[in-house]
Amino acid sequence: MATLLQIHPENPQPRLITKAAEVLRDGGLIAYPTDSCYALGCALENKEGIERITRIRQLNSKHHFTLMCHDFAQLGQFVIVDNSDFRAIKSMTPGPYTFIMKATKEVPRRMMHPKKHSVGARIPQNTTALALVEAMGEPILSSTLLLPGDENPLTEAEDVMDQIGHDVDVVIESGTPGVVPTSVIDFTGKYPEVARVGAGDVSRFLDE
Q1: Is residue 112 packed enough to be buried (19+ CB in 10 Å), middle (13-18) or exposed (0-12)?
Q2: What's the distance, Cα to Cα, between the start and end of the chain in Å?
Q3: Measuring CA to CA, how many Å separate 110 from each of 90, 104, 114, 174?
Q4: Where is the chain membrane-spanning (predicted)?
Q5: DSSP symbols for 138-185
Q6: What confidence tens digit (pLDDT) does each residue in 120-178 have?
Q7: From the centroid of its chain, how far is CA 6?
Q8: DSSP code for 48
Q9: Theoretical Cys-Cys bridge with 128: which of 43, 65, 161, 174, CB 3.0 to 4.6 Å?
Q10: d(CA 116, CA 133)
């Protein structure tokens, strides 16, 4: 059964953040809150972690995994941000948006889209999630905790423990996360395209 870590949502205890980061580094899989519901997360090079996420969510090969980044500088190390898209993406971070962009060579091939060589990336507006990414020193490979057959993602630590407590190593309880998934903007084409309307305002892209 997963370990439940209760972390203060505004002042995360460094000891507990370090403990969660160590689980990730040791090959573990965690469920953690963001500003747009819970996410599953593992270390970038964790092949087994990707397989566990894929199994829990029953994902297909076309799924875009997300790099949960600490800041814009880190995001820029793992995805290619064109000059024409820079200002728009910068204005939406941190926040409830996931950006689909071409991946750099820093991204493990197994987490890229098989044909587009693209990946999702985001910077959350959640203190605990940001502290965890900072402690890792690299992005956390993540996917929204939306279980097969469910219309809505999980938002309560108790529900996460009940439903997937035997499938993950740590569940973090840290305040109440958002209840709506991120808005997804695809920047891999000639023009930005809204792939999913979620918590973030996408009107600027729909008007174009």
Answers
A1: middle
A2: 49
A3: 27, 13, 8, 30
A4: none
A5: SPEEEEE---TT-SS----HHHHHHHHTTT-SEEEE-S---SSPPEEE
A6: 999 999 999 999 999 999 999 999 999 999 988 888 999 999 999 999 999 999 998 88
A7: 20
A8: H
A9: 174
A10: 26
Q: What is the DSSP letter of 202?
A: -
Place of tokens 């999980």: 154
Angle between helices 127-136 and 14-25 (to 10 degrees): 50
The answer, as to whether pTM is greater than 0.90, is yes
- The identity of residue 145, as a single letter, is L
E strand or H helix at 20? helix 14-25
Structure tokens at 166: 């035997």
Extract the tokens encoding 182.
Answer: 């991120």
Distance CA 89, CA 44 (A): 23
Q: What phi, psi does 4 have (nearest 5°)?
A: -95, 120
Contact between 136 and 127 under an 8 Å Cβ cutoff? The reply is: no
pLDDT in tens, 61-107: 888 899 999 999 999 999 999 888 999 999 999 999 999 999 999 99
